């Protein structure tokens, strides 16, 4: 689920042009449902077309799950947009529309996009919606330019989105491995000092808070952490108290926070992936970038299936909960 309260559309063509920027990527062989309040885009949710071998009950059940998520947004209107050939898209679009209607959501329009053209299932006016379809707006259209100006990006496909959270490779990976080994030794010494002084984690918690604040200052000013700073932060985030502290401070969902946790996630060694992946997922979700939030939490679960925060974010995103429904206050500030 991706939320966006800044883009205003005035036609089906503009809506189609905006969807990739709201999702963060250009959808293919899929169905998107776009929530509107008047002419303002509130959110978009996208799911793949059912495989050809699926039975109708299976496809209807899957559409119902997505419709439940849409209904929880309490939106006024929904436009259903299918991407792909008519044979596969038409039943999926009609099925999705019926699913949201049965949940009390009004469907404004049903659209199909394929080969750079679009069609409406609800418009019978050949002058408005010709049988050969209407050309989609160009990539440099006014609405696309506005979305880009507002900092939104439309990647070629979901695979490109997933690549944004993939681990760095080559020389940078080797340097992070060396930095992580130094951070591990430093962390072991800190734990020993904690136990010797009978502080029971106080030094770790304090060191984590300092590291989180330093990282925030760095990225707020447009900087980037060094390999040693990144590795040290990644190791400290294993402590639940440090992860909670960082989570509490991530609620604002600023773009620099998305950049911070993306960088940390991509650079840390696999054993330390889950906390920054969850922090990125939460921050992206708060920022209205649901697609990025999903691929981030998928990365967390791939490395650590039982991670508590990853499980929570998986449920939040799976149920399509809007950000205002989950507030995390007073956890480590």
TrEMBL record:
Pfam families named in the record: DUF4192 (PF13830)
Organism superkingdom: Bacteria
Designated name of the protein: DUF4192 domain-containing protein
